[in-house]
Amino acid sequence: MKKISIIGSGYVGLTTALSLASVGNMVFCLDIDDKKVTSINKAKTPFYELGLQDLLQKMIREKLIIAAKPDQKIIQETDITIIAVPTPTKKNTIHLEFIKQASQIVGKSLKNKDKYHLVIVKSTVIPGTTRNVVGQIISQYSQKIIGEFGLCMNPEFLREGSAISDALNPDRIVIGAFDIRSGNECKKLYQSFKKPMINTTLETAELIKYTSNALYATLISFSNEIAQICQSTIDVDVEDVWSAIHLDHRLISTSIKNMPVGITKYLRSGCGYGGSCFPKDTRAIVSFAESLGVNLPIIKSGIIDNNKQPKYLLNILQKAIGSLSGKKITVLGLSFKPETDDIRESPGVIFTRLLIKNHAHVICHDPVVKTEMLTRQYPKMRIKITNNLLEAISNSDAVVITTAWEEYRLLEKKNVWKKMKLPVIIDGRRILSPHIFQNTPVKYYGVGRSLI
């Protein structure tokens, strides 16, 4: 058993903590947010993520998880410290203030510790940060040189909505190490997972994470560009296009019950990506590249295209029902994807703001997002959120799907869409089957489906 302290108890920090505790390690979740600390110790997750609550309760019962405010004594008594704090972007450049604060705490904690201590950076940071920022700050405050304490960069590849599954069953473990001892100690932490390990430099590990996110974000934007062609062409549906593309063996994919697998999950058209990773990480890698004198036109184009997606969805709605002023529009889905309550840079939220700007009467539904979550991040947004789907669509002039929650497939049922004032459905995630609405009064519009 290893004793591990993790600074930051957000999506990455808490998920990492639970995965490491589940294989027998004692984990201390350190966070400056009193509410998070209290919530975790009461075995209540401070945010929604599929499977997280059950695993937290199990680890609390087994006394393998304890939450506390950042404490030098706790860090001193652990073998490993993992830094998993946010790295937001400000003015399109990565903001490292939280990383620096966490590094100072670790440095102060190690000053009077004689035993070897491994520090792992889990936060997404641009190349050079682990060595030149984290390592140097810890060295300054601990009065130890790097090597007297271990230093690794171990990026996470967690998908919100399936983070627990990804953490417990990683397809690969990337370990960027300052030296051999650091790398070996980090390997021991993951040996029970029995997954391929990629051993590399600190900077390469940092860039692997950005490359991964930029690739998937770009695939999504590419998919949405194809949808634009389909919408402007007679008798074309982008879903048929992707059904054929997904069967290409060069994409290392086969279709399972018409569901894309592997990389083809990102070759689907919709209303854009959001969340805590793709938007900020694509901006950060572009900014980093520019600091090196390198231009990234493909990634830049993907960012621009993604920013336009909510407006494209609005255009479809306006073509369907005309002026939005005074009309009741139901938005289905505020989280940026299903099985999470994360609304950061969510297309659904951005689209809702466009509706308000066009003087529509908006009502929103989401299975897990609550009004207080929305007002906390967007205090000027005053909209009604309900968790009753039938109430949300009742007497609506149009329904717009912006998150692919499974329950929204209920709109295919006659007794559901008949609740609407005008049976107009805009499918921003292409989760419904258009043929079901043939020979019905429903006007169905899907992203990437011909509007001609």
Automatic annotation (TrEMBL):
<dbReference type="GO" id="GO:0051287">
    <property type="term" value="F:NAD binding"/>
</dbReference>
<feature type="active site" description="Nucleophile">
    <location>
        <position position="277"/>
    </location>
</feature>
<feature type="binding site">
    <location>
        <begin position="157"/>
        <end position="160"/>
    </location>
    <ligand>
        <name>substrate</name>
    </ligand>
</feature>
<dbReference type="InterPro" id="IPR008927">
    <property type="entry name" value="6-PGluconate_DH-like_C_sf"/>
</dbReference>
<keyword id="KW-0560">Oxidoreductase</keyword>
<dbReference type="InterPro" id="IPR014027">
    <property type="entry name" value="UDP-Glc/GDP-Man_DH_C"/>
</dbReference>
<dbReference type="GO" id="GO:0000271">
    <property type="term" value="P:polysaccharide biosynthetic process"/>
</dbReference>
<dbReference type="InterPro" id="IPR036220">
    <property type="entry name" value="UDP-Glc/GDP-Man_DH_C_sf"/>
</dbReference>
<dbReference type="GO" id="GO:0006065">
    <property type="term" value="P:UDP-glucuronate biosynthetic process"/>
</dbReference>
<dbReference type="InterPro" id="IPR001732">
    <property type="entry name" value="UDP-Glc/GDP-Man_DH_N"/>
</dbReference>
<comment type="pathway">
    <text>Nucleotide-sugar biosynthesis; UDP-alpha-D-glucuronate biosynthesis; UDP-alpha-D-glucuronate from UDP-alpha-D-glucose: step 1/1.</text>
</comment>
<dbReference type="Pfam" id="PF03720">
    <property type="entry name" value="UDPG_MGDP_dh_C"/>
</dbReference>
<feature type="binding site">
    <location>
        <position position="87"/>
    </location>
    <ligand>
        <name>NAD(+)</name>
    </ligand>
</feature>
<dbReference type="Pfam" id="PF00984">
    <property type="entry name" value="UDPG_MGDP_dh"/>
</dbReference>
<feature type="binding site">
    <location>
        <position position="337"/>
    </location>
    <ligand>
        <name>substrate</name>
    </ligand>
</feature>
<feature type="binding site">
    <location>
        <position position="31"/>
    </location>
    <ligand>
        <name>NAD(+)</name>
    </ligand>
</feature>
<feature type="binding site">
    <location>
        <position position="160"/>
    </location>
    <ligand>
        <name>NAD(+)</name>
    </ligand>
</feature>
<dbReference type="Pfam" id="PF03721">
    <property type="entry name" value="UDPG_MGDP_dh_N"/>
</dbReference>
<dbReference type="InterPro" id="IPR036291">
    <property type="entry name" value="NAD(P)-bd_dom_sf"/>
</dbReference>
<protein>
    <recommendedName>
        <fullName>UDP-glucose 6-dehydrogenase</fullName>
        <ecNumber>1.1.1.22</ecNumber>
    </recommendedName>
</protein>
<feature type="binding site">
    <location>
        <begin position="266"/>
        <end position="270"/>
    </location>
    <ligand>
        <name>substrate</name>
    </ligand>
</feature>
<dbReference type="InterPro" id="IPR014026">
    <property type="entry name" value="UDP-Glc/GDP-Man_DH_dimer"/>
</dbReference>
<comment type="similarity">
    <text>Belongs to the UDP-glucose/GDP-mannose dehydrogenase family.</text>
</comment>
<dbReference type="InterPro" id="IPR017476">
    <property type="entry name" value="UDP-Glc/GDP-Man"/>
</dbReference>
<feature type="binding site">
    <location>
        <position position="209"/>
    </location>
    <ligand>
        <name>substrate</name>
    </ligand>
</feature>
<feature type="domain" description="UDP-glucose/GDP-mannose dehydrogenase C-terminal">
    <location>
        <begin position="330"/>
        <end position="434"/>
    </location>
</feature>
<feature type="binding site">
    <location>
        <position position="36"/>
    </location>
    <ligand>
        <name>NAD(+)</name>
    </ligand>
</feature>
<dbReference type="InterPro" id="IPR028357">
    <property type="entry name" value="UDPglc_DH_bac"/>
</dbReference>
<feature type="binding site">
    <location>
        <position position="344"/>
    </location>
    <ligand>
        <name>NAD(+)</name>
    </ligand>
</feature>
<feature type="binding site">
    <location>
        <position position="274"/>
    </location>
    <ligand>
        <name>substrate</name>
    </ligand>
</feature>
<feature type="binding site">
    <location>
        <position position="280"/>
    </location>
    <ligand>
        <name>NAD(+)</name>
    </ligand>
</feature>
<keyword id="KW-0520">NAD</keyword>
<feature type="binding site">
    <location>
        <position position="124"/>
    </location>
    <ligand>
        <name>NAD(+)</name>
    </ligand>
</feature>
<dbReference type="GO" id="GO:0003979">
    <property type="term" value="F:UDP-glucose 6-dehydrogenase activity"/>
</dbReference>
